């Protein structure tokens, strides 16, 4: 009996299947494109990452649910049949189903069979479902979030900072000047500068998030401040940002903060041999 005939019989047994495989085959260890630079650059290629087979299966099933090709309450084929459709091992299918079950997307009945949960679509839409990443990529996500967040924070501080806030920010400049004279790392002054700006927004949530960023990225900030000439340049950038806040110039302050982060990004790129991690 042919494979297609077997699937048709299986489809009739499961009721809502459409008479042909729902899922295309996946490639084991498929690599996602990392993008590239123009020819002539010494670093033409960026690193690529391997996408786990189970993640590919999960993405396909979620796509079928969102598109309506799979419906709440529908019974899924067995692990063996799914493995044949996807072209992967049963262990990869089992891992994917286990993850989806833990997310409340599907359920396995004691009487036998795997079914999509009643609110599987809502679960998928509500989930922050981003494929797992290695630590280096998670760091890049964290740094990106910090930049987007703190640029807006700086603009908000311009309209809310009072005299005490300005005194605090200016004090961090004095601390960094002292670090520069004494050959200190300057990390405390750097962290406090950004925290004082966040405090100037008068928003406790914002202040707490910026404090968390400071703690999580502390080690990398120590390294970038140690880059030749960086501490002196950082002090100059901080001084200009402080002046924009003092002058209530929100647009200029946001621009300066963005340039501040861009300068750090270039240093990180140089430290990593011309590319970010």
How many distinct domains? 2
Shape label: elongated
Overall average pLDDT = 83
Strand arrangement within the widest β-sheet reads: 3-5-4
Q: What's the N-to-C terminus distance?
A: 52 Å
Number of helices: 12
By CATH reckoning, the class of the largest domain would read Mainly Alpha
Which consecutive residue ranges, at least 5 long each, have pLDDT under 50? 1-21, 32-42
Number of DSSP strand runs: 5
The CATH superfamily name of the largest domain is GntR ligand-binding domain-like
Sheet with the most strands, sense and barrel status: 3 strands, antiparallel
Strand content: under 5%
Computed CA radius of gyration, to the nearest angstrom: 26 Å
Percent range of helical residues? 55-70%
Question: What is the name of the CATH architecture of the largest domain?
Answer: Up-down Bundle
Task: Give, in order, the helices and strands.
Answer: HEEHEHHEEHHHHHHHH
What fold name stands as the CATH topology of the largest domain?
Answer: Four Helix Bundle (Hemerythrin (Met), subunit A)
Overall structural class, as computed from helix and strand content, comes to mainly alpha
Describe the structure.
- Helix 6 (135-160) crosses helix 8 (187-199), helix 6 (135-160) runs antiparallel to helix 12 (250-271) and helix 11 packs antiparallel against helix 12 (250-271).
- Residues 1-21 and 32-42 have low confidence and may be disordered.
- The two termini are 52 Å apart.
- This protein has 277 residues and is mainly α.
- A hairpin with a 5-residue loop joins strand 4 (106-108) and strand 5 (114-116).
- It has helices spanning 3-14, 53-67, 79-86, 90-102, 120-126, 135-160, 163-182, 187-199, 204-216, 218-225, 230-246, 250-271; strands spanning 31-32, 49-50, 75-76, 106-108, 114-116.
- The protein has a 3-stranded antiparallel sheet with strand order 3-5-4. Strands 1-2 form a two-stranded antiparallel ribbon.
- The protein is built from 12 helices and 5 strands.
- The protein folds into 2 domains: 3-126, Arc Repressor Mutant, subunit A (Orthogonal Bundle), CATH 1.10.10.10; 135-271, Up-down Bundle (Four Helix Bundle (Hemerythrin (Met), subunit A)).
